[in-house]
Design goal:
The protein is 48% helix and 3% strand. The protein is an all-alpha fold. Strands 1-2 form a two-stranded parallel ribbon.
């Protein structure tokens, strides 16, 4: 049994070197590895966080959250189904259809959201006409969603007479704030700097272990 951090480091390091054990790649794959991280970044910016994707994601989340108290899978709630294999295997994409066609009247709110989802009436983003500077971004990083909503409420109360809807209810009950940081896998670090590439000569000899 490994009892200390130093023992773990000794096990993971090559004897006589400061190099730790890791998967290595041939030098000819450098561009492929760079492309992998670039593709990851592109998928996050253009697909995973696209406004339509996020609109559908949050809508589906609300469908399940509102169904949670009233919908059961083998007597398990949606969130607790992962604790039972038989219930968990029922937790598939078809759960949306099962909720939609359920005769339980308590699922009416979820059914209404399912109708929105299938009609492509997705949640819409609020696009900001301005960009934050570094100080403002740093301030927001340390604020929770509720703290941001409280700050918005203070501003909204000053101009609530100028809008035609209940702005306070909108902020507290309908507005979704998501904080995200999209990067290449290691925040400000370049992940390829932490990969180990070997020349053909190193692969065929023990030079890479020296």
């Amino acid at each position: 049994m490994v009892n200390s951090e130093s023992e773990r480091k000794n096990i993971c390091c090559l004897e006589g070197t400061k190099k730790h054990l890791m998967i290595c790649y041939p030098e000819k794959l450098v561009t492929s590895v760079i492309d992998f991280f670039r593709t990851r970044f592109t998928m996050f910016t253009e697909v995973y966080t696209h406004m339509a994707t996020k609109g559908a994601e949050f809508l589906l989340r609300d469908i399940l959250v509102k169904a949670e108290p009233y919908f059961r899978l083998n007597n398990y709630s949606i969130s607790s189904a992962i604790t039972d294999p038989d219930a968990f295997q029922l937790l598939t994409d078809s759960i949306i259809d099962v909720i939609e066609f359920s005769e339980n009247p308590m699922l009416a709110e979820s059914k209404g959201l399912i109708h929105r989802f299938k009609g492509r009436d997705l949640y819409m983003p609020i696009d900001s006409p301005w960009r934050l500077d570094d100080a403002e971004e740093k301030l927001l990083e340390n604020m929770s969603e509720m703290e941001m909503k409280q700050a918005l409420l203070q501003v909204a109360r000053l101009c609530k007479d100028d809008v035609s809807f209940d702005v306070e209810r909108f902020i507290l009950e309908e507005l979704i704030i998501e904080q995200r940081l999209i990067h290449h896998g290691m925040k400000r670090e370049n992940p390829t700097n932490f990969c180990r590439f070997l020349s053909k000569h190193q692969i065929l000899t023990s030079e890479s272990l020296q």
